[in-house]
Design brief:
heterodimer, A: alpha/beta, five-stranded parallel beta sheet, globular, B: five-stranded antiparallel beta sheet, elongated
Chain lengths: 140, 963
């Protein structure tokens, strides 16, 4: 497992951030977890970094710029256009699912209330995106 | 020998010549006798004809008949003279004819006397004279003289025929014996010269054969003998035959061909055919033909022959005779000519005449006869009358039979229905005709087509009938009274109109008086009295019928006086005028009603609360009621002659004029709507108006009727309503917007519920687990249990939130109604439920053809919930029986054999998060039936349940109008 790959978690809820981090730890995923607590921060980070994350985990309910708007901007920017984005949210609203896929999200995962299930979910997620999935070629 | 033969030949020839001359002479006499006889018949006919015509003249006085009589008399005289010439050789006959002449002259003298008698003393005198029988005895004497003459000639004819016969026999003998002797001599001479006496015997046999031939010839005829060998075509002709053929004896070789040459061209083909037939079949020949000679002198010959047959029976030769029958033929021709003349006479007659023989065969018919019976050019002669007219009735055939027995029959006119259905009226007379011997030879039919005359008579009868009918229909009765004779006449219609049966009026003035209505009687009688003075009669009165019916009658008439001023006749008609009278009274009543109606109308017009105005075509006000004046605030004086335009707000004027145009062009019979009028004070007044055109019978430009109802108040109320409506609409749209906003808010709320409420739950769960994991060693078992409780409650809270969201989504989602196959949908759910509960025995009974209209997604949710419930609550049952069907009333139902429930709690059944069973018994948040109810209510349907504890449950639902 290449550990230089960064995971971007866009999430404003500290509890959730910590639970996510705990879940990654439990699953022995050692890659750096970059946390952006709102949409603006996330986009700033992406603009600033030269090493695009292997996957961005995007919550929908965010301060300042909502999640779906963040997704739209990621897809609108040629640099980040191919970056894998997984929506990780409590919402299961049909409308959110539809808009998310329309905007080109790679996956949509609803956070279970049960932490065991959540931890299992994160473990699979990490395994999939960091190990199994081939990264898109970088855009110059 | 030869000189002897020559001498014999010469003497035989002389004998034959003299015999021939004598025979010729005899034939001339026979012909002469025939002629005399014919003339006698003619004479008799003309005497009878002259007499017949004269009788007719005496009876009818038709002067043309007198001319006919004279000409018949003249013809009789010339016939008599020619008879005198013919009988110059017979003094007896001459004396008889002279006597006959004087008889006829006497007869004609008597006739002429009768003419004078008719002219001076009239027909009765003539009839008396005729009855005196003077003429008749002379006629009888004439007849006697004529028949005596005929008898004499008949005797002569018989005598001369006998002489001719004996002469013929004699000639035959001379010819036979002479020729025979001559031949014998020639044979003997030849034999003596060339043969030895021993050959005589054979010659004799040949001679016997020859003699046999001759004998045969003698038997059959008196003239030429011929023999024709069919095998060699050799012919032997006797000398006489050559003469008969008009040829120089032995001038050619006698042969069949030579014989053919002498035949008359007209007879050649027939004769050759007859001979040819006889030769072929070997029958006896018998043919009559002419031989050529000078024009008009052809001779008629009769040829007869018998075949002689060989051993095999084939004819080998013919032996025959030919004799001259020219005289017989001439006599026949004369007879035929006479018949022809008779026929032509009949044919040319200008009336329809037909002459028949005893078998009713036509002998002749006149041209007119053929025309009258449409026979065209059909050949009648020789045909039976009944063959030509199969339609002749039996009664007529009987007439013919009577006439053939001697009766004279006639009919003044009879209908003759033809085979094609057409009708003819025929007047006819049938008489027998008699032959010279006085026997009835047949009948003569004189007929006249009187169809035209009959048609005229019929038309006349029809006209009278029509007139009678017309009188009956028009109920016109006519009467007439002759003052001099006191005789009255009237038509039965007159009785009918007085209510009397036919023949019920006795013609008495008193009877009539009693019939007149008592109130009208005096006036009627005055009219009668007046008529006697003025000659004219005219009046109307009522009559009372015996049954009490009262009728009105009108009478018109004239009283005629003779030149002396004496009352002569009274003519008149009565007409039933009850209907006209009633109509008149009805009209009078109608007039009264009209006046009444006018009065009522005026009252209504004056008092009506509705403003009524009538405008002339040019827009001037013609008439208006007080309501109109007060509506527009004018006095009656101000309104007089005011123009319509002054009541119209200027901005409405164009519309008003357009409306008028609509009425005038007939696009609308009337107009009815609200419009504005201008008051005198300049205020506008709202009225509901009714406008229509008033046409009158004179066809003037129609006037305009306007009825105006003041609706200012109503109009104001309308405006208020409109304002309120507008406000209401505003309010509704505002509320709707609010509702939409609330909906949005609700959505946002449920969004945050789903998102924000879950996040802390996940935290509680996560950190509880973290505590349990990370500090497992420091927590005793009870603490661990508590953490477990925290986590399970947290997760249940998560499920509740999810259910709540689902419920809210059912309410907020849009309804898309489509036809749904519920049976198919239930079967799919059945499959899923069976898979999910693989360990259980589930028996589903799903009715076929369950269909409904609704939102497929929502209905599916409801159905899943209901069926899943049924599966859930049948868990204790070994076999779960679940039924999906439809009641007779149309409600769908799902029945199970599960644990059921107490119906007392049925109310809370459909409330969210309400449960009737312990959570430990059956899992679930209690949201399913709440969702079902939402779905059903959204479809305007109803859902309810029936159950008993432990006895299963049945859930019913309808889908509003869509079921």
């Amino acid at each position: 497992m290449s550990t230089d790959k960064v995971i971007l978690l866009i999430e404003d809820n500290r509890s959730d951030v910590d639970l996510t981090r705990r879940a990654f730890d439990k699953a022995h995923i050692a890659n750096e977890l970059v946390v952006a607590e709102d949409g603006e921060e996330a986009l700033d980070y992406l603009r600033g970094t030269s090493n695009l994350p292997a996957v961005a985990l995007l919550d929908l309910k965010l301060p300042k710029i909502p999640g779906l708007e963040v997704l739209r901007r990621i897809r609108a920017d040629p640099r980040t256009r191919r970056m894998p984005v997984v929506i990780l949210t409590s919402s299961k609203q049909e409308q959110d699912l539809a808009t998310g896929y329309d905007l080109g999200v790679n996956s949509y995962i609803r956070k279970p209330v049960d932490f065991r299930q959540f931890a299992g979910c994160i473990a699979q997620l990490g395994l999939y995106w960091l190990v199994l999935n081939e990264m898109p070629p970088a855009i110059r | 020998m030869l000189p002897a033969a020559g001498l014999l030949a010469v003497s035989v020839s002389y004998l034959l010549y003299s015999d021939f001359e004598r025979e010729q002479e005899l034939h001339r006499w026979i012909s002469h006798t025939y002629e005399v006889l014919t003339q006698f018949h003619t004479l008799a006919a003309f005497i009878e004809k002259a007499e017949d015509i004269h009788r007719k003249y005496l009876l009818t006085g038709d002067p043309s008949l007198l001319g006919n009589f004279e000409s018949a008399a003249r013809t009789e005289e010339s016939v008599r003279h020619s008879l005198m010439r013919l009988t110059s050789d017979n003094p007896g006959q001459q004396a008889r004819i002279r006597a006959l002449g004087s008889l006829v002259e006497r007869l004609f003298v008597i006739d002429r006397e009768l003419d004078k008698l008719r002219n001076t003393e009239g027909i009765p005198a003539v009839i008396a004279a005729l009855q005196a029988d003077r003429g008749k005895s002379i006629v009888d004497e004439c007849r006697d003289a004529l028949s005596a003459g005929e008898e004499e000639e008949s005797g002569l004819l018989a005598e001369r025929s006998a002489v001719a016969e004996s002469q013929a026999v004699r000639t035959r003998w001379v010819l036979g014996v002479g020729t025979g002797s001559l031949l014998l001599l020639l044979v003997i001479a030849g034999t003596v010269i060339e043969r030895d006496i021993m050959q005589r015997e054979r010659d004799r046999s040949a001679m016997r054969r020859s003699e046999e031939r001759l004998r045969l010839a003698m038997d059959s005829a008196n003239a030429g003998i011929w023999e024709w060998d069919l095998r060699t075509n050799e012919n032997v002709w006797s000398e006489e035959l050559w003469k008969l053929y008009g040829l120089e004896p032995y001038s050619c070789t006698p042969s069949y061909e030579a014989w053919c040459q002498i035949l008359h061209p007209d007879d050649r083909s027939n004769t050759e055919k007859a001979v040819g037939d006889a030769a072929r079949s070997g029958v006896e020949l018998n043919v009559e033909f002419r031989v050529r000679g000078d024009v008009g002198r052809e001779r008629w010959l009769l040829a007869r022959g018998r075949p002689l047959r060989d051993a095999s029976g084939r004819p080998e030769c013919f032996i025959g005779i030919a004799l001259d029958i020219t005289h017989r033929k001439r006599a026949e021709e004369i007879l035929r000519e006479r018949e022809d003349n008779q026929r032509r006479f009949v044919e040319a007659a200008p009336v329809a005449i037909a002459m028949f023989d005893r078998e009713m065969r036509y002998l002749a018919a006149s041209q007119r006869y053929c025309e009258d019976y449409n026979l065209g050019s059909r050949e009648l002669v020789g045909h039976s009358h009944y063959e030509i007219f199969p339609e002749i009735p039996e009664s007529w055939r009987e007439v013919h039979r009577r006439s053939l027995a001697g009766a004279v029959e006639r009919s003044p006119g009879e209908r003759f229905v033809r085979l094609d259905g057409s009708e003819q009226w025929v007047r006819w007379e049938i008489q027998p005709w008699r032959s010279g011997s006085g026997e009835i030879g047949g009948i003569v039919l004189f007929s006249e087509d009187i169809s035209q005359q009959k048609r005229v008579e019929q038309a006349l009868l029809d006209n009278e009938a029509r007139l009678r009918l017309a009188q009956q229909i028009a109920r016109i009765g006519t009467f007439e009274r002759n003052f001099r004779t006191g005789i009255g006449a009237w038509t039965s219609e007159l009785e009918v109109m007085h209510g009397l049966p036919p023949g019920g009026f006795d013609g008495n003035l008193q009877t009539w008086e009693k019939l007149v209505h008592p109130e009208d009687r005096a006036a009627a009688l005055r009219q009668v009295a007046l008529a006697m003075e003025t000659g004219k009669f005219e009046g109307e009165w009522r009559v009372v019928w015996p049954d009490g019916t009262v009728r009105w009658l009108a009478a018109r008439g004239s009283v005629l006086r003779d030149e002396k001023g004496e009352l002569q006749r009274w003519l008149g008609v009565n007409i039933d005028i009850t209907e006209a009278k009633e109509a008149e009274q009805a009209l009078r009543r109608a007039h009264a009603e009209l006046r009444e109606s006018e009065h009522r109308f005026r009252q209504i017009f004056e008092n009506a609360p509705t403003a009524i105005a009538i405008f002339a075509a040019d827009g001037r006000l013609e008439k208006c009621n007080p309501a109109f004046s007060s509506l527009l605030g004018y006095t009656d004086e101000e309104l007089r002659g005011a123009s319509f335009v002054s009541f119209v707000p200027p901005e409405d004027l164009d519309t008003r004029l357009a409306e008028l145009e609509q009425l005038r062009t007939g696009q609308a019979p009337f107009l009815q709507h609200d419009s504005r009028y201008l008051r005198k004070d300049g205020q506008l007044v709202w009225v509901h108006k009714f406008v229509t055109l008033l046409t009158n019978e004179t066809g003037d430009e129609p006037r305009v009727l306007r009825l105006l109802t003041d609706i200012t108040e109503r109009k104001q109320a309308d405006l208020e309503i409109r304002r309120l409506n507008t406000e209401l609409e505003h309010r509704v749209s505002r509320r709707t917007a609010e509702l939409l906003a609330a909906n949005k808010e609700l959505e946002a709320f449920s969004y945050s519920v789903s998102h924000d409420l879950r996040a802390p739950l996940r935290g509680i769960d996560g950190w509880s687990l973290a505590l349990a994991e990370d500090y497992a060693g420091q927590l005793d078992e009870r603490a661990q249990q508590y953490l477990g409780r925290i986590r399970s409650e947290t997760q249940r809270m998560g499920l509740l939130i999810d259910d709540l969201l689902r419920l809210s989504r059912i309410s907020s989602s849009e309804l898309r109604t489509v036809p749904i196959d519920l049976t198919a949908m239930a079967r799919e759910i059945e499959t899923e439920l069976c898979e999910a509960n693989a360990g259980r025995r589930l028996e589903f009974t799903i009715s076929s053809d369950l269909t409904a209209s609704g939102d497929a997604r929502l209905i599916n949710i409801a159905l899943v919930n209901l069926l899943a419930n049924a599966v859930k609550f049948t868990e204790p049952r070994e076999v779960a029986r679940i039924e999906f069907g439809r009641t007779r009333e149309g409600a769908f139902y799902i029945r199970d054999n599960g644990v059921g429930f107490d119906i007392a709690y049925a109310d809370s059944l459909f409330r969210a998060f309400q449960r009737l069973h312990k959570a430990s018994e059956f899992a679930g948040a209690g949201i399913g039936l709440a969702i079902v109810q939402r779905v059903i209510h959204r479809h305007s349907g109803e859902v309810w349940a029936e159950a008993q504890p432990d006895a299963g449950a049945t859930f019913y639902f309808t889908l509003g109008n869509t079921t």
